[in-house]
Amino acid sequence: MAESNISLYLQDGKPFFFPIFEHVALGIAYVSLDGHWLEMNQRVCAITGYSQDELQQLSCQKLTYPEDFERDLALFQRLLKNEIATYTIEKRYIRKDRALIWINLTVSLISDGEQQLFCIATIEDIHRRKQIEEERSYLLSREALARHQSERMNEQLGVLQAITDTALAHLNLDSLFQNILSKIRDVMHADNIAVLLLDEQEHYLTVRAVQGVEEAIAPNVRIPLGRGFAGTIAAQCAPLIVNENESPVEVLNPVLRQHLQSLLGVPLIVNKRVTGVVHVGMRQNRVFIEQDAQILQRVADRLALAIEHASLYEEAQHARQALQEHSRLLEEMYQQQANFIAIVSHEFRTSLTGIQGFSELLSTKQLAPEEVQDFSSDIHEDALRLLRMINDLLDLEKMREGKETLHLEQVNMLELLREQIGRSQAATRTHNFHLITDENIQEIEGDRDKLSQVIANLFSNAVKYSPQGGTITLRLSQEAATIHLQVQDQGIGIPSAALDKIFHIYSRIHSESTRYIQGTGLGLSIVRHITQLHAGKVWAEKAQEKGTIFHVVLPIKHPDL
C-alpha cells in the first residue's frame, strides 16, 4: 500500500481514537515498515524529548542506543517475516538532550489481510524501574562485600588470645563491649575502663562503652582529636601512661582528673587506621609499666578487630534486611503494574471491539430504525466507558505529580448524595438506593466536583461488586465537627486481608467471583486521594451479614481555611 494510502488509513480512525491516542499514559506510535515514525502521541514526545515534526524526520534507528540496535533489528526482521506476531524488548533511547532513557517497547504488525501496512508501537518509560534495579544490584554487591569482609575478619579472629575468646562469640556490639571490658578490667585490676570511638568525620572521640567511675558522665564526653589524654593517643597512634597524676598532656575529662591516680591508654587500630582508644584507670596509685601497655595493646588489637567484625556483621544484617524489603516492594510493584496494564488493555480492547463491531454493522447493513438506535446506544455506552477510563488515568497522573488542587466552597453533601442517587438509580434496574440521614446536616468546606467524584466512585463500586443486585444503603450523619458518609452494599464482600489494600493504586480483588467485573482498579485510590486532600479519612469494613461498608469522614471546616 502506498504511503498516501497508509496516511488515509490512519486518518480514517483519527477522529474517534484521537482522545485515547493522545491521553493514554503509554506512548503510542505508528511506524513504517522501514522504521520511520508516521504518527505518535504526546507521551512519545515527552519520553524522547522530540516534537512530532522532529520525530517524523527521524528513523527509530537514530533514537536507539547503538548497543541495543542489533537485538531490536533482529526481532523487527522476524516480525516482518511473519515469524512472530508481536515482540517486546527493553532498550534505551537517546533523547534529544543526549540523555539515555530506558523504555519497554512492544511492536505489532498491522495488515489489511493482503499485505503488511505499518507497525504500531507502545512505549513505556521504565527508567525509574531500571534505576531501582541498579540500586538493588548495588545493595547485593554491598552485602557481598560486607560478607567477604566479615569472613576475612572471622579468619583473623581465629588467632585471638584466650582473654577475648569468649567475648568474640558475641556479635552484638553492646554485649561484646560488656564482656571484653569485664575481662580487661579483671586482668588489669582496673577501677575504670572505657572505649572511645572516633566519629564518622574523625574529629571527636565519644564514649561507646564504659565500666567504673566514668559511667556517670560518659554520655557527655566528647574529646577533640589531638587534645586531652584520649585525643593525644588517637592522634599519635601510640600508648600513653599517666602515673601519680603526672601527665605530659592535659586530662580534659574531670572524672579521670579528679578520681583516678594512674591512667593507661592505647589506640584501637584496624588496617593501620585509628578507630578509637581504650583506656584503664586506678583510684589508688599504681605505676603502669611498658609491659602493661603491651598487654593492653594486644587486647586492644583484638578488641578493634572484634568491633570491626561486629560492625560489619550488623551492616550485613541491615543490608540484607534492606535488600529483602527492597525486593519485596519491587516485586509487589512489578505485579501491580503488570496486573494494571493487563486490566487496562483488556478494558480498552473490549470497548474498542464493541465500538468497531457496532459501527461496522451500521456502515455495512441496512438496519431498522430501532436497531440503529440500539447499536448507537451500545456505541455510546462503550465510548463513555473509554472516557471514564481515560479520566481515571489522567486523575492518576495528576495524583502522581501532585498537581491536584481544591476549589473550596460551601458544599451541601445531602444535595450531592441525592443528585448522585438519581443518576445511579437510572443506570441500574437491579439495585435500590436507600438513604438514611438527618435533614439538618451542616454544609462543609470542600471541592464540589471532587466530592461528587468520591460519591460517584463509591456508588459505582457498590453496584459493580453487587452483581446480583440488592439494596445499597447510604447513611449521612454529622458527628461533632465532621460529616460521616457510609455506603453499604449487599454484594460479594471483601476479604479482611484486602480491606486496606483496595485503596492502593492498581489494586483489585482477584478471585473467581470478581474476574468478570469491569474496571481499572483506580476508583478507590482516587477516592482516598480526594478524601485526604480534604483532610478526611476513608476505610472499609465487612458488613455483618454480607457485603461491604465504606466510610468517608470529612471535616466540616477545611483546616487550610
Explain what the structure shows.
- The protein is α+β, with helices and mostly antiparallel strands and 561 residues long.
- The chain has 4 domains: 3-125, Beta-Lactamase (2-Layer Sandwich); 140-188 and 298-400, no CATH class; 190-288, GAF domain (Beta-Lactamase), CATH 3.30.450.40; 409-555, 2-Layer Sandwich (Heat Shock Protein 90), CATH 3.30.565.
- It is 48% helix and 22% strand.
- The protein is built from 15 helices and 18 strands.
- The strands form 4 sheets. It has a 6-stranded antiparallel beta sheet, sandwiched between helices. Strands 2-1-5-4-3 form a 5-stranded antiparallel beta sheet, with helices on both faces.
- A hairpin with a 5-residue loop joins strand 1 (27-31) and strand 2.
- Helix 6 (127-157) runs antiparallel to helix 11 (290-364).
- The chain is elongated.
- The chain starts with a helix and ends in a 6-residue tail after the last strand.
Total E-strand runs: 18
Q: Span between N and C termini?
A: 63 Å
Give me the side-by-side strand order of the main sheet: 8-7-6-11-10-9
Oligomer: single chain
Structural class: alpha+beta
**Number of separate domains:** 4
**Beta-strand residue percentage:** 15-25%
For the sheet with most strands, the description reads: 6 strands, antiparallel
Morphology: elongated
The residue fraction in helices comes out at 40-55%
Determine the number of helices (DSSP H or I, runs of at least 4 residues).
15
Low-confidence stretches: 155-160
Radius of gyration: 36 Å
